[in-house]
Amino acid sequence: GSVSDMLSRPKPWSKLTQKGREPFIRMQLWLNGELGQGVLPVQGQQQGPVLHSVTSLQDPLQQGCVSSESTPKTSASCSPAPESPMSSSESVKSLTELVQQPCPSLETSRDGKPPEPSEPPSSDSQPTPPLPVPGHSALSIQELVAMSPELDTYGITKRVKEVLTDNNLGQRLFGETILGLTQGSVSDLLARPKPWHKLSLKGREPFVRMQLWLNDPNNVEKLMDMKRMEKKAYMKRRHSSVSDSQPCEPPSVGIDYSQGASPQPQHQLKKPRVVLAPEEKEALKRAYQQKPYPSPKTIEELATQLNLKTSTVINWFHNYRSRIRRELFIEEIQAGSQGQAGASDSPSARSGRAAPSSEGDSCDGVEAAEGPGAADAEESGGPAAAAKSQGGPAEAAAAPEEREEAPRPSEKAEPPPSGPAAPDDDEGRPRVPPPPEGPADGPGPVPNPAAPAAGEDAATSVRRARGRARSMPAIAAERSSALPSTSAPPAARRPSSLQSLFGLPEAAGARDSRDNPLRKKKAANLNSIIHRLEKAASREEPIEWEF
DNA sequence: TTGCAGTCAATATC
DNA sequence: GATATTGACTGCAA
Fold first, then answer.
1. Confidence band (pLDDT; 50, 70, 90) for A32?
2. Nucleotides on strand C with an atom closer than 7 A to protein CB?
3. Is A278's CB less than 7 Å from nucleic acid strand C?
4. CA spacing 20 to 30 A to A100: which of A215, A415, A439, A485?
5. Whose C1' is closest to the CA of A325: which nucleotide?
6. DSSP state, A127?
7. Which of A357, A338, A329, A344 is nearest to A480 (CA)?
8. What pTM value is reported for the model?
């Protein structure tokens, strides 16, 4: 009777308790022929002999957990993720986790019931692990990510945003419940999704979760439930804390420093957050214009002049670079989605011969327009303009940049974006995103056309510069969309088995109907160019601009 | 060591 | 109160 019931009405994985999962694991192993004889050891015996005979968990994971639908896929259609070759012992371990592995939310559920209705997620500031998507264990998310076809991250976030706003659901709830991320991260992610091919496996995870969530017909309902429960719990806590008069979060070290006590407790409770003054930011931005990859010496000087910690300056540069980069990703996407316009300027629309020049125009729009030698040098006043002084540290900070001459050894020579003309000075030239260098560029810290006019940040200036220059990421993006499989894991080339999981319309592969041989060829060409550029850049050697 | 990706969490802004 | 911004941190790779 149980079997019949189970076979005809299998519960989704996420709804199953540990015990409830066991039969499915058994079935899966049996289907795989892994459970020929003997009995699957139950909890506490996972290291038993039978488990040791399990040679690969990939299939169980992918088939049994990824989808507990009654349409098991064959091993052939669901080959192991390349990124996670498992040794036998790892398999055992994973199976252990698999068996025990409660859907994260179950873990918090005291009675083994599905979490949603029983436990408000993270009223206590500690984000709970994400809710497993129906039919998928949390463990398998990595597998899913590895197998996932290229997803349209922008489309996904767009839809998620729509659903959330339409249903008045908050980012915090969504993030903590579905993605296992904090509100800030969710906000960031939704506002500035990176293109799929630019994401690491880890970075893809939230998007896969989102996609799966979007595919879940009960997604909104569940979140609503969560919301209700959270509210209830909140009210409850409020009531109890009123009587308790004790806030629920006692200081971890047990000392209350809020009462004007020593501001520097021995345990140093929390570092106060550094907030950079606008002038400091301005100065840093100007410094960035001069040199996106400042040498330690420059950083030192900047720090001194701005009266900041060196680490703050370093962090600022890191953050700024990466954020600007992302800013541009999203803009590229948006630009791309608004009619394939700009096609004439599109690198992929150019011939292979033209490609280098497109590279030359800009290797990466991010800082592309920002490097000292950015194209259209006549456009703005460079340091002078940038330094449109507000006096103070801002101005002072720009100075060291101009003085700086010897690039630090670690600063790799940037591939001359526009032909052999540019190998001259790499001083102040953005590294990752080689700036566009028009014919006019060359001499060191030259007025940066895209240098932000006063108050304009680099991203903005880059935006201005866009249109006359395409970015490397953009190129890559295009290349990638034209070549769905270049950056996607091998599994992406066989998305069919995952189509139902990811709702294929969402997948870039499906989306890209322009995927034709010619495009592929162009994209491949660009790909190779970029590859060479990167290689050359890292070798600090001159490049031959023949593609 | 350096740079990056991803994230947190404090703070600002809406 | 929700969302956006951003300085800092961790882990990883080259």
1. low
2. 1-9, 14
3. no
4. A215
5. B4
6. P
7. A329
8. 0.52
